[in-house]
Amino acid sequence: MEIIIAGVVGLVAGVAVTFVVQNVLMKKRLEQMLKDAENEGEAIKKDKILQAKERFLQLKENHEKTMKDRERKLQSAEDRTKAKEKTLSQKIEEVNRKEKTLESRDEELTQKIELADLKQQELEKIQQKRVAELSRISNLDKEEAKKMLMEALKDEARTDAMSHIKDIIDEAKLNANREAKKVIIQSIQRLAHEQAIENAVSVFNIDSDEVKGRIIGREGRNIRALEAATGVEIVVDDTPEAILLSCFDPIRREIARLAIHQLVSDGRIHPARIEEVVAKTKKSLDDEIAETGRRTCIDLGIHGLHPELTRMVGRMKYRSSYGQNLLQHSREVANICAIMAAELGLNVKLAKRAGLLHDIGKVPDEEPELPHAILGMKLAEKYGEKPDVCNAIGAHHDEIEMNTLIAPIVQVADAISGARPGARREIVESYIKRIKDLENLALSYEGVVKAYAIQAGRELRVLVESEKVSDLKADELSFAISQKIQTEMTYPGQVKVTLIREKRSVSYAK
Questions:
Q1: How high does pLDDT run on average in the chain?
Q2: Which residue of 15, 164, 177, 262 is 20 to 30 Å from 449, comparing CA positions?
Q3: How much is the pLDDT for 419?
Q4: Is the CB of residue 412 less than 8 Å from the CB of residue 340?
């Protein structure tokens, strides 16, 4: 028991001693930590004080620099102000000197005016004395003398004026004639194209005479089919390696030439194939006509032309005017109009447009009984051309009154283009008209489908519908047409009327 008590006492004593030792150690540690904290605070304090001093010095330096800049700017502004003040002072002094000079001049002018007034008064007195003396000598008062003097001066002035006016008019006429001739000569010289006369015959070249037999066909059926489909007379004679195509209409001749070329190249030549090729050739030529019209407008710089007028321009390529190619003539007239309009200061594009379209009335699909100038004007109005262009077209043969400056230019340009040596032939125009009248006469009868004048108008071939015209009526119709030609038309020699009635039966095997 005692031993236990002793052990407990020893244990308590040991714990107490340990507690005391720990308290002492803890106290020392706290004192050391406090001392370290105080040292660290002092160091931070010193560091902050140094930073504050550095910041203060930097701000002070910046402030001093800013103040120096401001002082320098103020000094510069002050220097400029002083210079301006000096300049103003000099200008004020100069103005003052000028004012003094002007005042002295005003005084001089005032003195001179007063002196002039005195002299004027003296002159008036002298004039009055002279007038009184003249009145006494001539026994006329002042008003009568003045009136007589004015009348004499008027007569003299009128005579001089009339003389001057006459001289001016003569000079103006001379200059106008000279300038007009110069414009026309320059226009002709700048567009001196060669002229080619068209005829009514085309030559189709072939490789060998063997092709002639294939074109004629068995018993002539191929050549008859070609003539019936195209309306062109095909002359196959002894001319080596050549076939003649005869027709007054260049479009028909071109269709026949292209169709024969395609048939010969293909090798298949028979009536059904001929009709097919001719139909395709007509369509192809229509497309080419439209393209020719577009190219012509592009070449001349003419824009916005109605498609139908463009197609008519293309048709001009296959028409002639007194033997002169109509498209070449119209292009030439357009260029001459442009040159003359430029020389005269007029609208060049409008003049060129009127020049190109001036003969558009010669190529319509239908040909009513109207002069081509009036018909062309109506077509231009129909397709939206400007009034100036329409008037120039209608007036270029004096069939209506000219009311624009472009109209006489188109008329003169047309005359220039047509007056070239060898440019035109009257006989071709009259020949074409006679041939057309011959065909139209046959087409006026009921049942007639096609009518073609061949052999230069010496033969008229008439194709009729078999359902409407019987064999008996065909004889009567042929006689009636020949009698009407004899009574209504004038022609050299005789005209043979050949009426063709063909019955076709077509069926298909499927």
A1: 79
A2: 262
A3: 58
A4: yes
CA dihedral 324, 328, 331, 335 (to 10 degrees): -80
pLDDT for 21:
79
Q: Any idea what DSSP says for residue 197? A: B
Give the DSSP H or E segment for 324: strand 324-325
| HSE of 97, CA atoms in CB hemisphere, 13 A | 6
How does pLDDT run across 25-42, given as a tens digit for each residue? 888 888 888 888 888 888
Cα separations in angstroms, 451 against 95, 199, 262, 330, 417: 105, 21, 25, 30, 34
Cβ atoms of 191 and 339 closer than 8 Å: yes
For residue 328, CA distances in Å to 334, 356, 358, 387 come to 10, 10, 13, 25
Q: List, as one string, the DSSP characters of 394-416.
A: HHTTTSS---SSHHHHHHHHHHH
Residues 6+ apart with CB under 8 A from 333: 355, 356, 358, 359, 410, 413, 414, 416, 417
- Measured between its terminal Cα atoms, the distance across the chain in Å is 146
Banded pLDDT at 195 (limits 50, 70, 90) = very low
- In 247-325, which residue ranges form alpha helices assigned H by DSSP? 250-266, 271-300, 307-315
Backbone angles phi, psi at 31, to 5 degrees: -65, -40
pLDDT digits (tens, 9 = 90+) for 498-509: 888 877 777 778
Residue type, 192: A
Q: Which residue has the tokens 């078999």?
A: 466
Q: Which amino acid is at 92?
A: I
Cα angle 383-288-411, degrees, rounded to a multiple of 5: 45
Q: Would you say 360 and 376 are in contact if contact means Cβ atoms under 8 Å apart? A: yes
State both tokens at 226: 């070609």
In this prediction, residue 197 carries a pLDDT of 42
And the tokens for 278? Answer: 């001719």
- Confidence check: pLDDT of 333 > 70: yes
- Whether the per-residue pLDDT at 394 is higher than 60: the answer is yes
The residue among 441, 415, 295 whose CA lies nearest residue 358 is 415
Q: Write out pLDDT tens, residues 278-287.
A: 888 888 888 8
DSSP state of 276: H
Residues 15, 21, 26: CA angle, nearest 5 degrees: 125
Rounded distance between C-alpha atoms, residue 447 and residue 61, angstroms: 122
